[in-house]
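Sample 3 of the quickstart, ligand beta-D-galactopyranose:
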Amino acid sequence: MNSRMEAFTHRVGGLAYGGDYNPEQWDPAVWREDVRLMREAGVNTATLGVFAWASLEPEPGKYEFGWMDEVMDLLHAGGISVNLATPTAAPPVWLTHLHPEVFPIMADGQPFGFGNRLQYDPSSPIYREYAAGITTKLAERYSFHPALAMWHISNEYGPTAYNEASSVNFRRWLQRKYGDLGSLNEAWTTRFWGQIYTDWEQIEVPNIPRTWMNPARRLDFKRFTSDALLECYIAERDIVRSFRDDVPVVTNFMRFYRNADYWKWAPEEDAVALDIYPNPLESDSHVSAAFQYDLFRSLKGGQPWLLMEQSSSAVSQWKVNVVKEPGRMRLGSLQAVSRAADSVLFFQWRASRGGHERFHSAMLPHSGADSRTFREIVDLGREVKALAPVAGSTAQAEIAILFDWNGWWGLEETFGLPRNDFSYVESVMRNYTPLWKAHYPVDVVSTASSLAPYKVLLIPNAYLIDDDGVARITEFVRAGGTVIMSFFSGVVDEFNRVRPDGYPGAFRELIGAKIDEYWAARPDEVFNVEFGDGRTATATWWRDDIHLETGTALATYRDGILKDRAAVVANRYGSGRVVYFATLLDEESFDTTLLQAVESAGAAKPFDGVPAHVECAVRRNDDHEFVFLLNHDAEVSTTVTLSAGGTDLLSGRTVSGDIELGPLDAVVIQRPARPAE
Ligand code: GAL
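Result:
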């Protein structure tokens, strides 16, 4: 943790608890009730001002800070720290009315228009000028207000814009990247379809982004869009820092968000922060949440992160929005903390009466303090307070999974592939889920991460990997690591050009085989597969026409034109080992093979024998470890036997090795630091 975050943790006395607070929607009498109820609920942090630009600057250059002064003072008097947002995610109507060119032009060629939020082109110099203006005013006024504990820059950076200003900025970005047009033409393979550029001015954003489009241009546009948004963040961050630089500065990210490369953003923040709304209708939404939490812990190399937004109960953005049944909010919050979140924050404190999100749940619902939700919020506040000792602790893993935005874009955004219906997220989750079920701790890595701490690296459908990443992965295996890779990995370079000398150009030696052709399966094709040990499996969706070199077949096809050829390959390389899936196996066979490879790599298996519905995770600091056991089953009680007991921070009770968990129940056992379970 950096010193700014340490100071924040110290200030809130452990974990942050609270949420978005929008007092501009309410009269002053309500503010007083808010502070009273916040105190009752144990709230120590309020995120103020997220969409308040129009209330702070109702006309250009005319500011109304009186209400915010009063709210800051009230919160401070109530002992509640403020996470102060720059309001730049919602430009006021006067701005877009004066300068309609600020509206982002959307993928369909139409301007976004007013009435939602995020109505800005991140490359617009006018937007940036006005955003800098309001940010400067806020920083001038509140940098030294005693309530200020953190800066929250804008909100969920997002828009992809196809404006003229974006083209100008895109050209600037390309000039910085390529230096001269010759290199760009080479990288983009512009001789194909005669697309050679002779002047920078000829290059535009891929406006009307058809699927038939130069794939390197599309890819660079994705990279550029992430960077253009990041420029907006950095500009505002630097303004607030110029007034005072001991307060942490963050922004909030979204779950599986494709338009911003979080690996590039994370180093620019004091902590990464996540907004997440697991859908209670999806039975495995807590597993994908666990992956997100592992990703967020990994983005800054194992530092605790911030759960910036979640819901207390139902949301309002989907077709059917079901409530979180009693106990689910608590369990979901503890799950985030178990994977190194140092906060439990919500959108939002008080439910809005009008506006698009009038039916979105809140800490304080429409039905007021005498409600199931508020009672659960008060109870949770007490527990979050009791979890103060876990703040700052983190987790380590021996297994890493590659999650890379460039690979994601290459696979899903550039088209013209043997199949154009890949889902990168599905593929990542297919690899992550068996590890989660078996309670293996997992870190998430990028192509630039150090792989030295790991025994096993999973590489799901990594179609595009840059040369550096390839070198790092190759070295990892040479030095003794185990790689588990799935098909269509290592195919193209960072410019989306097929790597030469047979597929998969980057990893032919690693997998010990050459692939002649990629065979997309027909919709109803199912192939029978048999493993060396006699296990049988089925394969669908994809087959590599693979020719073994140094590799050996772990499993072969029993039928079809590829009968007797390899479906799963194992290869030794240097002191390491690679297991390569050349097809899509049925889930059970895939999971078994993956877990066998993990086990033979010698990865420690904590919590062996604990059923999958009891999620197990451990956070550690120098003195203690904190064992989280979370029963996701709403009906079944389960007993878990640990090798050593400790104190359950939630109940305050001393517990022995045998721990009884009721339905949806949880324990957080603090015990002295010791070797893994
Ligand atoms: C987030 C957003 C919040 C609120 C919430 C609803 O994406 O930052 O302002 O809209 O979703 O779930």
